[in-house]
Amino acid sequence: MSTYTAGYDTDFYTWTQAQAALLREGAFNELDLVNLAEEIESLGKSDRRALGSHLEGLVMHLLKWQYQPRRRQTGHSWYSTIVEHRSQIRAIVEDSPSLQRAVSVLLERRYPSARQRASGDTHLSLVTFPEACPWSAEQVLDAAFFPEV
Fold it and tell me: What pLDDT is attached to residue 73?
């Protein structure tokens, strides 16, 4: 095993730097191709998971915003959290535009968890919240959209 592949399990940072150097040098035959491919694939999955996580957090706060309007002004930072999640989603999609196609699917998939979390955070019954996401992906991502009762 070359010194460039040995560090993968023992010193990941050094391994990444060695792989980058080998790529820049064009020393393709020395690359740790198996682990390198796995890490590249992992990066894409990580972005998709982050997008789903931000969508879930965004929708949870939009639900809280809609169903507890009196609590919007009482020290809760729902507005800031909504803006932050939208900002993070925008950054992910700007870096990986192909993930825009995944937004609707991830929104549908992550909504049940957002609904459950909103119920737990607000102490409102789960049946208070719609079973399916009441907003389109476009509405959820629209910076001007804040649902009303």
Answer: 72
